[in-house]
Amino acid sequence: MKLYFAPMACSLAPHIALRELGLPFELVRVDNQTKRTGDCRDFLDINPKGYVAALALDNGEVLTEGPAIPQYLADLKPDAGLAPENGGWPRARLQEMLNFIATELHGGSAPLFRSDLPETALQIFRDKLFRRLDWLEDRLQTQPYLLGDRFGIADAYLHAVLGWLPRFGIDIALWPALHAYFQRIAARPAVRAAHRAEETAAPAR
């Protein structure tokens, strides 16, 4: 498998999942501006949507989208416990959480990357994001991970999105339980390895 990624992007989530699962893969960097890849390809030929993550499989298929790729990977090694078995209530709860992260946090953060919006508009988006972070704060005061006592793919996804907060001038320490959670995820060996690999990956050409 090849995982196409960009630094500080949501592609960090499937990257973490791959390392947590111990699956063999090649990490390929994408330049978000030029759409060139580290293996000398046009990324638009791989994912016409034009954004990471993209997981290229040995059979020629390419899977995209943050909530989809980690679920596929987790199902390759179900005994690792990164996702509940498909078809049951716990899996529905996982999908609920993944969609919350994708729409309310990932999508909700997108306007904050823009420098052309007036401050009044940015504050509206920040206020909405803060309410979502408040909800997470309440949840994580009573459990170590998003779905209970065990780390899973939703935690990998949330870790990637929370890593953007400093870029927006938002101090995660304002939410103590969320801050402790973020540090707990960051200390995992697979997460640390993913960060190191992304920092040293060959640039796109």
Structure, explained:
- Strands 2-1-3-4 form a four-stranded mixed β-sheet, with helices on one face.
- Helix 1 (12-21) packs parallel to helix 3 (68-76) and helix 5 crosses helix 7.
- It has helices spanning 12-21, 43-46, 68-76, 89-109, 119-140, 153-162, 176-186, 189-200, and strands spanning 2-5, 26-29, 54-56, 62-64.
- The model has no long low-confidence stretch (mean pLDDT 96).
- By secondary structure, it is α+β, with helices and mostly antiparallel strands.
- It is 48% helix and 7% strand.
- It contains eight helices and four strands; from the N terminus they run E-H-E-H-E-E-H-H-H-H-H-H.
Share of helical residues: 40-55%
The outline comes out as globular
Mean pLDDT: 96
Total of helices: 8
Q: Find the count of extended strands (DSSP E, 2+ residues).
A: 4
The largest sheet, given as strand count, sense and whether it forms a barrel, is: 4 strands, mixed
Q: List the uncertain runs.
A: none
Query: What is the H/E string?
Result: EHEHEEHHHHHH
Residue share in β-strands: 5-15%
Strand order in the largest sheet: 2-1-3-4
SSE-based structural type: alpha+beta
Termini separation? 20 Å
Integer-rounded radius of gyration: 17 Å
